[in-house]
Amino acid sequence: MSKVHVELNNKTILVTGSPGFIGANLVIRLLTEMTGGTIISFDNMNDYYDPALKEYRLGLIEQAAEKSNVKHIFIRGSIADKELVDKTFAEYRPSVVVNLAAQAGVRYSIDHPDVYIASNLIGFYNILEACRNSYSLTSDEEYRGVEHLVYASSSSVYGGNKKVPFSTDDKVDNPVSLYAATKKSNELLAHAYSKLYNIPSTGLRFFTVYGPAGRPDMFYYSATQKLVAGETIKIFNYGNCKRDFTYVDDIVEGVFRVMQGAPEKKNGEDGLPLPPYAVYNIGGGQPENLLDYISTLQEELVRAGVLPADYDFEAHRELVGMQPGDVPVTFADSEALERDYGFTPKIGIREGLRKFAEWYKNY
Ligand SMILES: NC(=O)c1ccc[n+]([C@@H]2O[C@H](COP(=O)([O-])OP(=O)(O)OC[C@H]3O[C@@H](n4cnc5c(N)ncnc54)[C@H](O)[C@@H]3O)[C@@H](O)[C@H]2O)c1
To answer: Does the global pTM surpass 0.85?
Structure first.
């Protein structure tokens, strides 16, 4: 698919969901790589997991901003607050919008559905509306507004897809969790807005992202906390799971490249705009067996000095059945990302979990 280069230097970029895990890493990368311009972080700092970790990441962002010639502004608020979203767009007129703010997690959506509807559906709709209203006629007779909307989707949209690897050409109409249903809905809404208002948009289906200062609700992190506390970790589906784990730096590299290449605006045979719309997988394309991942995590926790060498791992694990909403395998077909952006995630679990364990030791 043809792409239009989007210049980031000296532009205003809005990243929602920063200082979330992926958002903080992305903003730090932008502050390091860009010249001039402004980055706006927008996050409600909710307590789905310990907000102290978000404050810690915000501190890292502020440190990076001090060394950068790019201005950083943090807005605390919810994307479900239409007035605040509209005010932010009117005041700062972002050229590129990266929407990472969302209620994540498959299991939490079973007991807390409301927050998924508020953040992932109403919040995303507010972002789309603000993008639509960003366009205005400039002095050189051109309509200008948001040049590229990039947003987080998820590998969970593939549900129980049997065909591997998962391709963005596969039919994904059978979500098995509310979380997955909201992410698929985001893709549908974005398609409609791209078609109706010619807004270039790219959805990114992230595959199990991990790394330093990651999310404590995710397995590698919560398992580490439990093992340190001497508790037992539950291994779901008796360990018969395969996950395409993706290290956060690879995700950031993918998002950074995608931000700079927007789907081209073109007219179809009917003279009407074709939707400048795309969706990509970002995943390593090398699914790991859950038990191998756990063994590597254990080795790296010992190596980093988080746990003693004689730790009895066998006594602290329990094999249990599958949880509702979970899927047995995730496996990304990353060919399209390689073709259009020249990038495939590269960092293996040994290197990635080592970095996580070393960070955890020092945190
Ligand atoms: N980490 C993964 O493995 C993974 C996989 C697939 C998709 N994703 C998606 O990537 C995005 C980022 O994920 P993450 O792992 O960094 O999660 P995260 O929870 O660390 O980050 C999300 C951030 O969004 C904020 N937020 C939530 N609702 C908000 C709202 N209504 N208004 C403003 N801010 C709000 C949270 O406070 C949090 O800081 C999410 O959209 C998530 O669904 C993540």
So the answer is: yes
